[in-house]
Model the fold of this input.
Amino acid sequence: MREAGLIEKLRDLGHNVEDRGDLNFDVFKDDPRNYVLNPKAVGAATKKVSKAVEQAVRDNKLTVTLGGDHSISIGTIHGHARAEPNLCLLWIDAHADINTPLTTPSGNIHGTPLSFLVNQLKDTIPWAALPSFDWLQPCLNITDIAFVGLRDLDPGERYILQKFNITSFSIHEVDRFGIHEVIARSLEAVNPKGDRPIHMSFDIDSVDPAATGATGTPVPGGLTFREGMFIAEHVYRTGLLSALDLVEVNPEVGSRQDKVNTVMTAVEVLTACLGKKREGNLLPGYQLPMP
Ligand SMILES: NC(=[NH2+])NCCC[C@H](N)C(=O)O
Ligand SMILES: [Mn+2]
Done:
């Protein structure tokens, strides 16, 4: 995404962009599956992410985190919530990523991040068996989350969404109501007075694999590129976006064309979240050239 010119494009929009660079994550040799895969590595990595995002938000920055595995959102949301405890969350994804370590069929932590963060699921997490997450405090009420784009849920996830009556718009509702209605109702549910900072976690696999083949767990029948862009533009217009994750871009999978399309989609969504308009942006001070 950097190589595709993301930072220059954001600067062209008038943003004062500070690239805080990559975080370096340690690999742990002795990291056997313990309910989940790679608990030590992910626990340590997400702790670093949390600290970095907390600091960036405290420095008054709209904070963008690029990934990579969606488990990073354990850290981004935790860090954001430390600085902005009143945040609400838009989770744009094919998956709900709210498996608990005991419901995950795969063991992949990227399918579980929300279960670690949600107050109401605190007692379902085997914390004592996962000491690498001992730094983490659940920080989110389940009613503070709205899901958009869902189309691949595991049984435990379906149960959790139903039990807590979570705001969620699957791709079925997107087809039924249209994307404008869906995103407006999502915001109305989690941010009715428009006074809460928004965290948007945008998984590139929410968008159809036609445009996003370079991702680990593609699911057919996703949001169109245009629906993804509409979400981004609509959220920008609220003026409340405080932190943004753009995740699950993996240029190592798929064809060369998949890689190009996926990175392009990610960069377009990111720039739209930060003010690029498809109708065109008026440059400040623009004057018509005269003959
Ligand atoms: N962020 C993602 N791509 N998540 C995919 C999760 C897939 C599946 N539900 C699992 O828990 O393993
Ligand atoms: Mn995800």
